[in-house]
Amino acid sequence: SLAHRCHHRSTAMLDVPFLPFCAFLGALGLLCVAMVGTWCQHWRGGFSLDGSSRTFNWHPVLMVTGLVVLYGAAALVYRIPNTWSGPKLPWKVLHGSLALGAFVLTVLGLAAVFCFHNSQGTPNMYSLHSWMGLGTVLLFSCQWAAGFGAFLLPWAPAWLRALYKPIHVFFGSTILMLSVASCVSGINEKLFFSLKNGTMEYKLLPAEAVFANTLGLLILIFGVLVVAALARPSWKRPDSDSPDSRQVRDALGG
What we know:
Layout: H1 2-14, H2 18-43, H3 53-56, H4 58-75, H5 89-120, H6 128-152, H7 158-194, H8 207-231, H9 244-252
C-alpha cells in the first residue's frame, strides 16, 4: 500500500548506520572531556592535590569522564554488531571493565571534592547536586556488583539472569540520565559560586558562563543520544537460541 511504502521510505531516511553514529558519539564524548578540562585549566586555575580549589577541579573532570563518557561507552558495548554472534564472555568482560573504570574515576572524583571541602571547612552533602550525585554513585555501585554477580560469575542460574536482565538494562539508562543531571546541576552550581565579581557575574553571561553552559548542553545531548541508541530496536542484540550459561562454558572451553 501507499501508506506502507511511505512509512518504509521515512524509516529508511531515518536509519543511521550504527558505527558512524558511534564515531560521532565518541567524538562528542571526547569533546565533553576536553571542554571540562579546558574550563578547569583556563578559568578555574588548573589542577593540584593541595586541598585548594585546584584539587576540586579534578572533581568535574573525573565525573564527566567516568560517570558520563566511559559509562556511556560501557552501556553501548552490546549494541556493536560484532557482539551479536559467538561467545558473549569477552564482551561481558569489556562491558564490566569499562564500567569498573568509570566507577574508579567516579570514586576519585568524589574523593577530590570531599578533600577540598574538608580542607576549606566547607560542609559536605548539603546541596541537591550532592544528594543526586552521591545517590547516582551508590546506585552505580549496586548495579555493577549485581551485574558482576549475575552475568560474570559462572554459578548464577539462568532463570536469575533472565529475571535480572531487564532490571539491569533499565537501571543502566536510569543511572546515565542521573549522571547527566548531576553533572549539569554541578556545572550550574559551580558557576553560581564562582562568578560573583561585579564585572563577571553569572547573569552578565561572561565567556566562562557561555563555555560552561555549552559544555552542559553537550553532556545532555551525549546522554540523550546514548539512551536513544539503547532504546533503538534494530540495534538491540538478538536473543540467542542457546542459554547464556552454555555460551560462557563454550567460551571458557575454547
